[in-house]
Amino acid sequence: MTPAIELAGVSRLFGAVRALDDVSLAIAGGEFFALLGPSGSGKTTCLRLIAGFDQPTTGRVMLHGEDVTGVPPFQRSVNTVFQDYALFPHMSVVENVAYGPMVRGVGADERRRLALEVLELVQLAALADRAPSQLSGGQKQRVALARALVNRPQVLLLDEPLGALDLRLREEMQIELKAIQQRLGITFVYVTHDQGEALSMADRVAVFRDGRIEQVDTPRELYVRPRTAFVARFVGSANVIEGALARRLTGSDRVFAIRPEMIEVRGSDEPVPGGMLSCEGTLEEVHYHGATSRWHVRVGEAVLTAVRAEAAAAAVIPAHGARLRLAWARESLVPLEER
Amino acid sequence: MPALRAAAAFLHGRRGFYLALLLLPPLLWLGIIYLGSLFALLAQSFYAIDEFTARIVPEFTLATYRQLFSQPANLDIILRTVAMAVAVTAAAAVIAFPVANYMARYATPRMKALFYVGVMLPMWTSYLVKVYAWRLVLAKQGIFSWFLDVFGLTPVLDGALATPVIGGPSLASSYIGMFIVFVYMWLPFMILPLAAALERVPGSLVQASADLGARPGQTFRHVVLPLALPGLAAGSIFTFSLTLGDYIIPSVVGAPGYFIGMMVYQQQGTAGNLPLAAAFSVVPIVLIAVYLALARRMGAFDAL
Amino acid sequence: MPSRRMRAAWDRATLGQKIAAFAGLAFLHLPVWVIFLYAFTTEDRTYQFPPPGLTLKWFEVAFARADIWAALKLSLAVASVATAIALLLGTLAAFALARSRFRGRELITLLFVLPIALPGIVTGIALLAAFKMGGIQPGFWTIVVGHATFCIVIVHNNVIARLRRIPPSWVEASMDLGADGLQTFRHVLLPQIATALLAGGMLAFALSFDEIIVTLFTAGHERTLPIWFFNELFRPRERPITNVVAVTVVLITLVPILLAYRLTRPNDTRG
């Protein structure tokens, strides 16, 4: 099947800065696809190339198998939800939503009907004749979404759409966005720097770093089998084991990642079951997080972090400087590619 | 309109072409008419007038500039104009500061709006009418003398008018009167950039200074004033440049001594010596260029 | 709503500061009001103050003067044409320069401030020199050319300031929804810059209507209202009529300027 979106060897240079560096990517139709990375990693540039706001320096952008490199945004069948919503302040809510049909020449009555239909979908039909300035942040966000959906795009691009909302509203909207995507069955490309958001919503995630894609995978694969130290640390948190410690534990020169929750903390004299790797260290700090606590243990040069569920934790936390034994199953050590 | 849409798509991909299309007409206007005229002016200043036929000889010569700088009367004019511009700039700064400071830092929002309108209105009021109004105010039997008379201050005025050089038979025909009019005319051009600069001084800085033990006077000297300097520089560019180039005020109010602007106007008009007028007008351009270079160092352009 | 800031006692304006501020403001206003008073004085030879009596007859006299009407008509015509040219060229330039980055941009920006950065007399004498060299007879169109040159700058400054306040995402959103450049201009940008255009146009009009420094060089034998006024300044016999014209000029320029001020106040734009 032809992918809905395909980037082939795309680079974008701003002067000497490589915002995108030879990126290739294929997104299937109907997929909820997240572009995840820290700011300046190239994820937004990537989105803007798909939307047509910007053109690649080299490489091609294809939509549904058709090469759209150089095609202006108003001739592409994708629509965008902007980070700042970009609602037109001189138009009412319904006029904003009806903007797409209007510029396509749809009559006044018909485009109002279309707009109200989509506003119904985002539960804002009641506010249709308000001015955008009279809406709350969450409501503006919904209008922006409705406006982008009214043209029935095959692909919806979302640029950190929930970034300006507070935590509770953000979580509500995550659920709603996912529901809308599944109901309409259209492709979502979702830019975010929030790994939790990407993991909970996306079918697949591309992790960006310095203009390159580090890894494209399902959230589960990304978490369980991060390919690089960057991905391991950016998606969730991870201990990276390398150098002398790695050699002592595995006998190899490779670099490994291990999730803190995979590490068991035992007394230094407790026995370790067969098949488990272990090392000894001294307790440096314990950070309390409510349901869990994080234990930072120094092992030689490295400091490893272990997470313990509070319910399972010993009632008495050992004093700082106490000798502890860290242990984990051999298979929870994930070998990483070196870069 | 598929053709228009096709054109829009065409232009979208060719940003440089689109920009050029937008820029071309205004650039042609300013480039040809304005810059062209400035070059014509420069060219004229390097021509000279034939003493006998009184016609312009279109050949390159430095004779006109030699005439400009060799005659003591001309140097006097330049000196007099520059001295007036400096005095006006200094006085405008002194009067503008309390106004700008109050409106930017202390006034309530409503009072602030009132001050802004109050400064902008006289600024935009007809230039000639203002000059004329001052002639009425400063005339021998005008408001100013009446006002002084009411308070019994007439001897003070007479004393000031008796001062050599800056005095004269009445305020309307003395350098003092001219100075007052100049300061009045350009004062808003000093207040507005100054207020803009002062408004950008965060209140927290003043609080931090006070918190660290500075008295209000010290805070003003060490925190507010340095941050307002770009605004002061920006305002002074206006007052300086406007005074240098003006020829209406010196001819309506003031003493008989000539100013650069009057020389430019008179030389091209009654005297019919366009080359000398052109050479005279190059003087303020050079002076302003020097002043701008100095002001730029003080960051004046950030406050414009 | 900006809440009234609470100020500590040490950080309030002292009485002296307040007096200085209000005195400065009064200084700016009093002379203008004098004109209004003198337009009604019965005394027609001196500037005697206070006026011995008040009358409306000078308005009648001025109203019947054909030369004043001719000058007024010329000034309005010049201001209209110069404003129209400035609106077109100033807006084009603002659109080209608002967000673009290219080599030589700084130089072009400098060119767009020069006509108001240099004193008017330079513009005037330069245009005159060019007209003389080109063998162009001064008249209506040379006045218009001179005025349009600095009016372009006024419009350009007004429009570019507004354009820079428009987030780039609005244009992108419009194009994203299927609007091409022209549609985006018509439906998104034009409504946003409309008040700036209007304000810039009115300031340009007021500036042109009142211009004297450049005009004296470029007018030839034409007489705009400011030139008429300038000549009157040296002819004391007609003083009362001059007063009446002064009041009229102030009122004609005041209206567009007050409107322009209202239109450009930032809190007037929704969003």
Offer a concise description of the structure:
The complex is a heterotrimer of chains A (339), B (304) and C (271). By secondary structure, chain A is α+β, with helices and mostly antiparallel strands.
List the helices and strands and how they pair.
The complex is a heterotrimer of chains A (339), B (304) and C (271).
Chain A: E1 5-14, E2 17-27, E3 32-36, H1 43-51, E4 58-63, E5 66-67, E6 78-81, H2 93-97, H3 99-103, H4 108-121, H5 137-149, E7 155-159, H6 167-184, E8 187-192, H7 195-201, E9 204-209, E10 212-217, H8 219-224, H9 229-234, E11 239-241, H10 243-250, E12 255-258, E13 264-267, E14 276-288, E15 292-299, E16 302-309, E17 323-329, E18 334-336
Parallel strand pairs in A: 3-8, 3-9, 6-7, 7-8
Antiparallel strand pairs in A: 1-2, 1-4, 4-5, 9-10, 11-12, 12-18, 13-17, 14-15, 14-17, 15-16
Helix pairs in contact in A: 4-5
Chain B: H1 2-13, H2 15-45, E1 48-49, E2 56-57, H3 63-70, H4 72-106, H5 109-124, H6 127-138, H7 143-150, H8 154-162, H9 175-199, H10 203-211, H11 216-245, H12 248-252, H13 260-268, H14 274-297
Antiparallel strand pairs in B: 1-2
Chain C: H1 15-38, H2 57-63, H3 66-97, H4 105-111, H5 114-117, H6 120-134, H7 140-165, H8 168-176, H9 181-210, H10 215-218, H11 225-233, H12 239-264
Question: Can you characterise this structure?
Answer:
The complex is a heterotrimer of chains A (339), B (304) and C (271). With 339 residues, chain A is of the alpha+beta class. Chain A is built from ten helices and 18 strands. Chain A has a domain of 98 residues: Beta Barrel (OB fold (Dihydrolipoamide Acetyltransferase, E2P)), CATH 2.40.50.100. In chain A, helix 4 crosses helix 5. By secondary structure, chain B is mostly helical. In chain B, strand 1 and strand 2 form a beta hairpin. In chain B, helix 4 crosses helix 9, helix 11 runs antiparallel to helix 14 and helix 13 runs antiparallel to helix 14. Chain C is mainly α and 271 residues long. Chain C contains twelve helices and no strands. The N terminus and C terminus of chain C are likely disordered. Classes of the chains: A alpha+beta (339), B mainly alpha (304), C mainly alpha (271). The interface between B and C is large, with 96 and 89 residues.
